[in-house]
Structures are given as structure tokens and as C-alpha cells.
Amino acid sequence: MPTSEQHGIKEHSDGRFGFVPVQTRNDRFTSVDVADFAPVTGREAVWKLSPVKKFTDLTAGVLDGSVYPIESTDVAGVDVAWVNRDDSRVGAAGAPEERAAANAWSSFERALAITISGEEAKEVTLTRSQLGAGPRAAHTIIEAKPFSRATIILENTGEARLSENVEIILGESANLTVVSLQEWGDTAVHLTNHFASVGRDARLKHVVVSLGGSIVRVNPSVRLAGEGSDTDLLGLYFADAGQHLEQQVFVHHDAPNSRSRVTYKGALQGQGARTVWIGDVLIGRNAAGTDSYEQNRNLVLTEGTRADSIPNLEIETGDIKGAGHASATGRFDDEQLFYLQSRGITEDEALQSRGITEDEARRLVVRGFLSEIVQQIGSPALEDRLQLAIEAELLGTEEK
User: Fold this and answer.
1) What's the rounded Cα separation, in Å, for the pair 58 and 244?
2) Cβ neighbourhood burial of 172 (10 Å; 0-12, 13-18, 19+)
3) Mean pLDDT calculated for residue range 153-175
4) Which residues have a Cβ under 8 Å from the Cβ of 133 and sit 6 or more positions away?
5) Do 340 and 284 have their domain in common?
6) How many folded domains does the chain comprise?
7) CA dihedral (54, 60, 66, 70) positive or negative
8) For residue 60, how many other CB atoms are within 10 A of its CB?
9) Of 304, 331, 358, at which residue does a domain stop?
10) Whole-prediction pTM
């Protein structure tokens, strides 16, 4: 959005347009009212890499904001309840920067609130599988009380057309892992924004796993608001033919001595498979002692795919420990495949002598490539399940 002046930069005297471009990532316009956003055209910075014509019902249409069925494991120290829009936590972690999120915010009737307390570690899985084919809105709040510890798994299955916002609030010294698992049906469309505020000495691990769905767009935004706050943002995605999997990540270091690591890895196979990753890191003026690094890696398995990878880094203070970013997209290493085919990695001497097929070698490379993310989740049962899901993707089966 244009503004009249930013960081001392003013409109050109001959421009007659009355604005200059936004100069820093944190200065983007935000609003919880969909009427404050112009209709989506696809030319906007946040939409230019998205197939916007395929989900105009979520950006411009009327959304069903009623409560929906949800399954949740019952664990002591974790309360799951529907709360009204006037709950004090609504809006505590962030606000929409684009129309789809604002439409969801304007439309939801009640928010699903997950409240975590107690210092003992706990794990809860919440599953949505009956959202239906109509356009929907949703709002979720995850609050980790001071010194609490938990892993929250948000599991999405079935068919849906959903725009939603998820707010994540960490109190002092809380330790929270949030896993957003997209195993939607083949025609599902899911647009979601995750807003997180991390308090003093708190630690957030945020994991995005996108395997199913037709169009999936998960955008995490984390503000390291307290001194000593820490976040790991991890992502794993596997795009098949015709799938569009997108993630726009933003980390805002807004307090001293904060740390962030962003690691997203994806694989693409099949005609028209498309992935988009945009990583923004802003180290603010008050964030002395920041330690930050972001990276995105993409492995192209077949012809006819496209991976967009755009890392961005802004630094407003020179007093930092370190900051960097990296991006890479490529195909298989022929020498690596040859070595695996000729040598094998099994203890069976007979198989070692004959090696393995090219397809087997390719599967080994992809499993090793993506396992770096899976192994950091911290939930053994989920990690095992995801390894099987990746294998199913590689075999080209419908089972995930």
C-alpha cells in the first residue's frame, strides 16, 4: 500500500501521485476489515505468484463463518473451546495484510481457542475433515501460558475451500511446537495466515507440512517480541502435477538477543507442479544481538515443474551476531545417482553387488533430502507417518 512518507523518503516533486512505495516489510498496510482492501487482481505483491482466479470466492465472496466439527485428543493442561469474537486474545498476535485473510477475519462467528498451561510436556492433535465444498472462514487462537510446554498438531483432511487466520501467543519462557499438516483432498483450496507473538525467553517451533490439496497457501508471520525469544520455522512440501503449494514467511526481530532459523524444503514432480516460497526477515532497530538465518531448497524431480524461491533480508541495526539467507533449486546429481545405483546401501551383499535401480536411487535421495525437516518435528508417531506419506508421494500412489 502507498503512503505519503516513509523513512524520510517523500514523493517525487514531479510525480503527482502522492505516494512512495513501502520501504520496509513491517510497514505494509493491515486491517481486519475486508472492506479496507481493494479487489484482488493478481498484480499485488502478495498475490502476483498465486492463481488468484481460482479462488475469487475466498477473496471476494461471502464466507460461512460458523463453527465446524473438530476432533481433539483430551490431554490435561490443554483446553479446547469456542470463544466469541470479543475475546481479548483475538487480534493479539497480528492482523491481515491481504484481502483473503481480512475476509476470513470479517466473517468468522466464533474462534477456536486452544489454551496451554503447565510445565510438563504434552501433545495434542486437532483434526478437521468435514468442512465441505462451500467457501468457509475460520479463526484459531493458540495461547501458551508462561513456562508451559506443548506440541499442537493441526491436521487438515478431506475437501474444503477455506480462508482462515491462526494466532499463536507465547508467554514468558513458554516452549511451543505448532505443526500445520495439510493432507487435503485433491480439489481442496486452503489459504491461511499464521500470526505469532513470542514473549521473553520463549521458544516457538513452527512446522508447515503441505502434501495434499489443489491450492495450499500457508503464510507464517512471527514477531520475536521479547528479549531472548527464539523461533525455528520449518517447512516441507511435495507438489504433484497441477498442484500449487505456496508459503510466504516473515520473521520480525523486534527485541534484543533474539534468534531465528528458517528452513523450508520441497520437491516437485509432474506437469504443472508449482511451488512458491518467499522468505522475509526484518531485524529491527531494537533487535541488538540478533542471530538469524533463512534458507529454502527445492528438488525438481521431473520436467514441467516450476519453483519460485525469493529470500529477503532487511537489517536496521549493525549490532547483530549474524544474519544470512540462501536459496537453491535444482535436479538430481547424476554422480550421486550413479554411486547409489552401482554400490547400493544395503547390508545384503548380493544386493550390494548388483546395486539398485535408478528409481530406487531417486527415492533414497528424496527421502534423505526431506527427512531433515521430518526429524526435527519432535513427535515420533507423526514423523513415522510423514515418512510413509513421502514414500507414497514418490511411488505416485493416492495414499498419503
Assistant:
1) 16
2) middle
3) 98
4) 159, 160, 161
5) no
6) 3
7) positive
8) 15
9) 331
10) 0.91
